[in-house]
Amino acid sequence: MRTQVAIIGSGPAGLLLGQLLHLAGVDTVILERRSRDYVEGRIRAGVLEQGTVELLVEAGVGDRLKAEGLIHTGFDICIDGSRHRIDLEALTGGKTVTVYGQTEVTKDLIAARLASGAPLVFEAENVALHDIDTERPRVTYEKDGATHTVDCAVLAGCDGFHGVSRGSMPDSVLKTYERAYPFGWLGILADVPPVSHELIYATHPDGFALASMRSETRSRYYIQCPLDTDLADWPDDRLWDALKTRFGDAAAAAMRTGPSIEKSVAPLRSFVAEPMRHGRLFLAGDAAHIVPPTGAKGLNLAAADVRVLSWALIDLFRDNSTAGIDGYSAACLARIWKVQRFSWWFSTQLHNFDTEPAFERRVHRAELEYLLESESAQKTLAENYVGLPFVDPRRVA
Ligand code: RFL
Ligand code: PHB
Predict the structure, then answer these.
(1) DSSP labels for 87-133?
(2) Which of 211, 216, 219, 299 is the most exposed place for a label (fewest CB within 10 A)?
(3) Would the pTM count as exceeding 0.70?
(4) Which residues in the chain come in under a pLDDT of 70?
(5) 293 is catalytic
(6) Cβ of 292 less than 6 Å from ligand 1
């Protein structure tokens, strides 16, 4: 097989890149290790920045998002049971976020891909990248017992944190930065109405908690938990009780509980790999960076990378210009580090660190109290939460 861009991974990054390039007349092949059912069923993100929504609309997959997505103009911060609203819309001059599940984004993108007739190969095993520092790279994979080769001009590594693409870059060029947090999130999805029409981020002596949703009838909750948490120790009732304690009496009284339809533990991590390009290989999304989920930024960062990469590749294939691909890594990283800073800061403010010295603990509390008293501090939070502007790679090089 021959194509212009071979895309590894059909998460949001790979699928959105495929769709934007398809609309611009650039040929792509997408190779995915998992099955379609698995990819569509993975429960993850829920909050889309305004720029991500606009990009999905531009990509032609905005109809259901516009019809079913819930526009949120603010969220609550809850300190030891007492709630304070952050008015995103007022603080940012009219910007909002949209609650729409990553599962739904993925389904919409897969439907668009299949309708376009462009190749999307599920259950592609042993994907391997070759000759990435030449102008004629290749990808090989196995499917149904046969080995296949895709010849291409560009490789897009959109295969998430555990993919093969990042590891295909030479150790000598790749520098990684990492911070692991000493806790995880235990999440539950249930078909009960949300406790509030907006998200609640809570900090409590027992630890962080988050009340989120997927729709007006489906709730998503999380609590901070030890890294070695065993789901078997957390029957639904225990989890609902922990949530009620962390959100305080008023929310506890309003909280509707019910059987879980999904429960899982995810570790929290901050990670960046630099640069995001080597030769003809470009990394995008979780393949290049991970943020702790507190700021709701992972999927949005993946979309931002793809926005920049699509500009760069359209320039390359349509106008024969390398300005975009040459600026790609720097343009993405300039924004990524600011989003890393925000996700790290928001996580640090809201979680309990057992090892934190008493002095730092009091300083953290003072910072949260300052946030709730200061409009300028809230503006900084809101500006980051609704999403920073994209950086044009053609203006960076
Ligand atoms: P993905 O979604 O991991 O997709 C990568 C794809 O590549 C495939 N793959 C391979 N394919 C071929 N060959 C290989 N060798 C391969 N190795 C892997 C995988 O099967 C997969 O299909 O990465 P992508 O596209 O970069 O998207 C990133 C987002 O999925 C991620 O950042 C977000 O889910 C993070 N996240 C959140 N982000 C937000 O913006 N807002 C949120 O509210 C939010 N909440 C969350 C989150 C992540 C969470 N978890 C579980 C980590 C909440 C949680 C709990
Ligand atoms: C979610 O709904 O899964 C979600 C919402 C907000 C976050 C993280 C996760 O900050």
Answers:
(1) -HHHHTTS--EEE--HHHHHHHHHHHHHHHT--EESS-EEEEEE-TT
(2) 216
(3) yes
(4) 397
(5) yes
(6) no
